[in-house]
Amino acid sequence: MSGRRNGSAPADLFLRIVAGDLPATVVHSDDLVVAFEDADPQAPVHVLVVPRERHETVADLAAEAPATLARLVQVAQRVADERCGGHYRLVFNSGEDVGQSVPHVHGHVLGGRAFTWPPG
Ligand code: DGP
Questions:
Q1: Is 0.70 topped by the overall pTM?
Q2: Most buried residue among 12, 24, 74, 106 by CB atoms closer than 10 A?
Q3: Tell me, which fold does domain 13-111 have in CATH?
Q4: How far apart are CA 48 and CA 25, in angstroms?
Q5: Domain residue spans of the chain
Q6: Each residue of 91-116: pLDDT tens digit?
Q7: What is the enclosing helix (H) or strand (E) of 72?
Q8: What is the mean pLDDT of the chain?
Q9: Whose CA is nearest to atom 16 of ligand 1?
Q10: What is the pLDDT, as a whole number, of residue 11?
Q11: What pLDDT is attached to residue 35?
Q12: 93 lines ligand 1 (CB under 6 A)
């Protein structure tokens, strides 16, 4: 399941973080998901919530492991409650054309500043 595709990160990047083989600032860990600080933060709060098992997109996760998707959303809410008053944007980039660089579904929890709409 590893390997680099057109301009994207290795597919196993987040598996290696989840396994503890790559360093990350972990803010939550349970039996289904791990949450850690994004290495390139786009807001004062920018945490990635990642399933322990690799599913490529959020739609794949919904189809293949819906309980894990529910947990991911619960953890996103908890992170936002603790760090930015429960106000946050939860983003799933799905597909390289819209900026998914790691083919292992991850929810971006973004908060701590004002956001514009529509997104760029
Ligand atoms: P996306 O572009 O939606 O696939 O988001 C991937 C995010 O992953 C991006 O915001 C930067 C982050 N990222 C990439 N490599 C690493 C890493 O090695 N460690 C951490 N903590 N974050 C990473």
A1: yes
A2: 106
A3: HIT family, subunit A (3.30.428)
A4: 10
A5: 13-111
A6: 999 999 999 999 999 999 999 999 99
A7: helix 66-84
A8: 94
A9: 39
A10: 86
A11: 98
A12: yes
